[in-house]
Structures are given as structure tokens and as C-alpha cells.
Design goal:
Elements lengths: L12 H28 L3 H11 L5 E2 H8 L3 H13 L3 E6 L2 E9 L1 H21 L5 H25 L1
Antiparallel strand pairs: 1-3, 2-3
Helix pairs in contact: 1-5, 2-5, 3-4
């Protein structure tokens, strides 16, 4: 049973919409996870770590990776250790700090990530194939309004 099935007609439309958004997110994420596993023998967290490194060619410190991925340092270390062992990322000393290092993609890692990123993009495009361009733009705009409202509420609460 998906999240949306929990809602009933007597629930507010907003709750039913939120549950539909969550269900759609879970379905698309499941497709992405399956694709990464089947086509690249990898996981979404590994893909996410490599995506962060792809955006920072000089590499990132472990604590920065952890912050960007919103996971613990232990999680980042475990994934990094695997990717180093496979020759997809490397650790580079940080000048002036003997305790720290930067992690960056190797050329092999960059090539693999580019292949995965193209497949990922194709999966996302396919996930929204039921919508035309106008509908996609409208949904994007409407969700932007929800996002902006949420940011405003959070700012007012602090």
C-alpha cells in the first residue's frame, strides 16, 4: 500500500496532494535506485557522493561532503572507502592540515559518473513522460510557490 492509499475523501485536499507528491517521489526514486543497481551495480548514495564531487573538480573535504549530502561523517567515510578501493575517487592531502584531505573524482570516476548522470537524466525524463511541456512548466511553477511559502514560514518562525 502506498502513502496515497492512506488518504480518504474526507481528508483535506492538501493532505491528499501531499501524499500523492510523496508517493510519486518514492516511485521515481525506486526507478532510479533500480536503474543504478541494474545498469551500474551501484547505489543512490554512491551516485549522490559522486555528483557532489563532479560539481567540485578540486574535491571536497569529508565534512563538506557530509554537510552537502546531509548524512553523517561515518556514512561518507564508508562510501568514500568503497569508491577509493574501486579507483573512482582519490584522497588528496590538504595543505596546512595534516589531519584533513580532499576527496575528488579520478578520471575513471568522472567517466563513470558522466555515464550514470546521463542514464539518471533519461530516467527522470521518462518518469515525467505523461506530462507535456506546458504541464511540466505549470507544475514546476506551482511547486515553486509551495517552496517559497514554506521558506517564508520557516523564516518567520525564527
Amino acid at each position: 500500500m502506498d502513502l496515497e492509499a492512506r488518504a480518504h475523501s474526507e481528508h483535506p485536499d492538501e493532505l491528499r496532494l501531499w501524499l500523492r507528491l510523496m508517493t510519486c517521489t518514492q516511485l521515481v526514486e525506486k526507478q532510479v535506485r533500480n536503474g543504478l543497481r541494474e545498469q551500474f551495480a551501484t547505489t543512490l548514495p554512491r551516485f549522490d557522493l559522486m555528483a557532489q564531487l563532479e560539481r567540485s573538480p578540486d574535491g571536497l573535504k569529508m565534512n563538506e561532503l557530509s554537510r552537502r549530502m546531509m548524512v553523517t561523517g561515518g556514512n561518507v567515510t564508508g562510501i568514500t572507502d568503497q569508491l577509493v578501493a574501486e579507483g573512482l575517487v582519490e584522497r588528496v592531502d590538504v595543505a596546512g592540515d595534516r589531519r584533513a584531505w580532499r576527496v575528488r573524482l579520478t578520471s575513471r570516476g568522472r567517466k563513470l559518473f558522466n555515464d550514470m548522470a546521463q542514464a539518471h537524466e533519461d530516467w527522470i525524463v521518462d518518469a515525467f513522460a505523461a506530462l507535456n511541456g506546458k504541464e511540466i512548466a505549470q507544475l514546476h511553477r506551482l511547486l515553486g510557490k509551495v517552496k517559497q511559502h514554506s521558506h517564508q514560514q520557516m523564516a518567520e518562525a525564527t
